[in-house]
Amino acid sequence: MFSPIYSNKTTNQSPKKNPKHPLVFWVGLLLSLCCGSFWLGLNYPNFSLVWAQPSSLAASLNDLNFSLSSSTQNTYNQNVSETAPETTIFPSQSTTTANSISTPEPTKALEIPPHINLLDFYQTYSQRLFGDESVKIISREEWGDQNFFSNNPPPNLKMTIYDGEGAEYDYDYFNNLEDFFSSRLLTINYQNNFQKYDESFMQNRKIFNGVNYIDYQYLPVEEIVIHHTAGAFTSDMDSSRHELERIYLLHTKERKWHDFAYHYFIDGSGNIYEGIIGGKYALGTHTYYHNHGTLAIALMGDFRPGHNQLNSQMIESLAKLIKYLIKEYKIDTSTQQYYLRKSDLSGRQSFSSFIRGHKELDAVSPITACPGVSPQTLRDILYPLIASKSSPS
What we know:
This protein is of the alpha/beta class. The chain folds into two domains: 22-63, no CATH class; 75-386, Lysozyme-like, CATH 3.40.80. The protein has twelve helices and ten strands. The protein has helices at residues 22-43, 54-63, 70-83, 118-124, 140-143, 146-151, 177-193, 195-201, 237-254, 312-329, 358-361, 375-386; strands spanning 137-138, 203-208, 213-218, 223-228, 264-266, 272-274, 294-299, 338-341, 348-351, 355-357. The strands form three sheets. The chain has a six-stranded mixed sheet. A two-stranded antiparallel sheet has the order 2-3. Strand 8 and strand 9 form a beta hairpin. The longest helix has 22 residues, at 22-43. 37% of the residues are buried.
């Protein structure tokens, strides 16, 4: 992983005895550290040896003119710019590059996207949705085996901003030190631009999942994120149930999340299954640093080129589900402009779609292939099916 700092080389020379008293050595070392810290304090006042704190890291990187390679700096926005429609930054929103970190004005952190409905959020968060005359959502009670859930209770742990598919906030996850620093910059951007916003609206509620009560957190939904499970392609209730149970164990037992990562699943026959049981606006654990303000729909299968084929039943059900969710969440689609978080969390940006693919939000390498198919291709297929009369009544 990381290159060792000290060498384990051996030589044929006999070790020399140190004539100095051990106390002299330790006093000398202490004086060297003090002098070094004093020099850093004079030349870089904001530098802190406790660099694990994001605020001191941000100051340290700026003071030391720390810069990542050009490839890393371009990683953050390349997926959105390549696949999403052309975007325009609002005049009031200043741009922030990956290695140029600035603290926003207090009002900027609380900019509220105009397409969300805060009244509906406060009135209906945690209410479960089961569809209407146009779409059927199969509840956990319908597709699940109660004995299975009773025998596999999830951990009652609160999710964090960095939980998500494909990434863990751990030194060992990252391929190199540069990737680790990219993640730290993502942390700083979140704290500067969105932490205050999320804390202002965050709600908590205990929900009974059939076995015990689990703590869920809630935030207004800004966008819908499409995933694939990258597992078995299933097309009947029995095989889909077994696959859902496998995914549930993966998420709750292996990854220690308190529920499914995703809010809804769609199988090869177009059946829609309830995932997270926390209800409307519940936070999932599906996208690294983008679980807040998002709703996740997972297509069951692996839809990378050369694997499973996304069929018409799945597309039709996905379009119906999104249209239903627009109505239930009272998302205003009349302006066709959505002021969403950038993938690197350096601020907000105006997009012409609130439907995004997982890969468009992935800001730390290795970039995921999820949802397998091109997000822009998916939008081109979906939007004609959901665009008519989708504004809230």
